[in-house]
Structures are given as C-alpha cells and as structure tokens.
Amino acid sequence: MTEVRLHIYDVTNSGSDKTNTTILQINKIFKDGIGLGGIFHSAVQVYGEEEWSFGFCDHGSGVFNCPSGKNPMYTYRESMVLGRTNFSKFKVNQILQELSREWPGNSYDLLSKNCNHFCDEFCERLGVQKLPGWVNRFANAGDAAIEIAENTALRLRQAKTEIVSASKVAYRFLVGVTSSSNGGNDSPGNSNRGSPRFQAAWFKNLITTGAKPSSSSEAEAQDGNAVPQHQQQNSTQNMQQNFQDSGRPQ
C-alpha cells in the first residue's frame, strides 16, 4: 500500500506574460477567493518521485512523466493526498501501460479530454478518490455548454423540418378542399381570409417563398377576378342568343 498524491499547477504556458498574469488572477479570484475553480494542470504521483499526466502530441501516447512538482511548463500551486492504493508497483505500471495505449496525444481536447480527465481516470483505477471538483470545473462547464448548444441547434433543425412537413400537409388538404368547392358560384362578398382559396394561397406562399400576404386585398383580388369574367361570359352568351333569335322568322 502506498500514497497517491495529486500535484496541481496554474496553467501559465500561453507564451504571453500578459495572458499568464491574467490566468493567475482568475485562479486567485475564482479558486482562492470564492472556491469555485480555475484553469489548472494536474498530475498524479504514486511509487517513486515521478508524477504522471497527459498532454497533446502529434504521434504516440500523450501520457508522460516528470519529477514531481517540477513541470517546467506551468507554475506550481499545491499538492494533496487522495488516498492510498493497495496495488503493487508492478500493477501500477501495468495500469500506466494500459492508459498509455488508451490516451494517444492527438486525442487531447481542452474541454473533454485533458490532463485532469486523465488524472481522474488514473485515480479511479488506483482505487482512490477522484480530483476535487474545483480542479476541472471550468473545463466541465465549457463542455456542458457546448453540448447544450449542439442539442439546441439539433432541436431547432428538427422543429423546422416538422413545421415545413406540417405546412405541406395542410397545403395539400386545403387544395383538396378548394378543388371540391369549385363547382359552386363564388361571390365577391364571400371572399375573405377564412376562405379555402385564400388559405391555400397563403400556405403555398409559405412553402415556396416564406412570405405571407400582407393583407387580404391580394386574395380578394384573385377571387374577385373570377366573377367579372363569369359575368362577362354570361353577357356574351345572352347577346349571341338574342342575335340568333332576332334572325329567326316569326
């Protein structure tokens, strides 16, 4: 049985002194001030003077080790004991070999698969408690926000598809109603927003152009145009009939 210790660093490897100073201030306010969390790197020490962690690389495993508390890329903050493991040194080495295969460097992701996630899994396999929540809270919050945004975008696309489908069904239904009512004579006074002809035209515009008529005048004009034509045809037929009757012998 041996002690498992967690080493925690402030992430100050941005290459910019101004950015590094800002990160230190954020960690001081959000971790030291209110205990919420910050931007941290972590590593696990078990058996010996080396600490183990995970980082990005183009090829090979992302699991690496360095002298405990002396990672030159970051600013050392503190350490804590997470418990004691019952595994032998040989078994711990086996676990590290497995993790080295399972955690390639090119799979590193700042929000969903970073050094803190690796230490969490390493500690779980060692049979000790996981990292305190504040160590990786910012990354977990960012990952959750991205997932929520992706789910919201997916639901919006699904809703749009359902609305378009429903509109097409309603349009086909209204076209059928309009066709079945064509046998009767329409009066200009009966043409309004509730008429099947107007509703069919409105849904057609919704599907094809996405533009709803601004007023009922367009639909009324369309319905009203049919009546004068019908009356004009009746008048023409009556004139022809009168002409024929006048030419017949009495």
What topology does this entry show?
Blueprint: E1 2-10, H1 17-33, E2 40-46, E3 50-54, E4 63-67, E5 75-85, H2 89-102, H3 115-126, H4 137-180, H5 196-208, H6 217-247
Antiparallel strand pairs: 1-2, 1-5, 2-3, 3-4
Helix pairs in contact: 4-5
How would you characterize this protein structure?
- The chain is α+β, with helices and mostly antiparallel strands and 250 residues long.
- It has helices at 17-33, 89-102, 115-126, 137-180, 196-208, 217-247; strands spanning 2-10, 40-46, 50-54, 63-67, 75-85.
- The chain has six helices and five strands.
- Strands 4-3-2-1-5 form a five-stranded antiparallel sheet.
- The protein is elongated, with a radius of gyration of 38 Å.
Helix content: 40-55%
In round numbers, the mean pLDDT is 77
- Number of DSSP E strands: 5
Order of helices and strands: EHEEEEHHHHH
How many DSSP helices? 6
Biased composition (Polar residues): 209-219
Protein name: PPPDE domain-containing protein
Keywords: Hydrolase, Protease
Family: Belongs to the DeSI family.
Short structural description:
It comes from Hibiscus trionum (Flower of an hour). With 250 residues, the protein is α+β, with helices and mostly antiparallel strands.
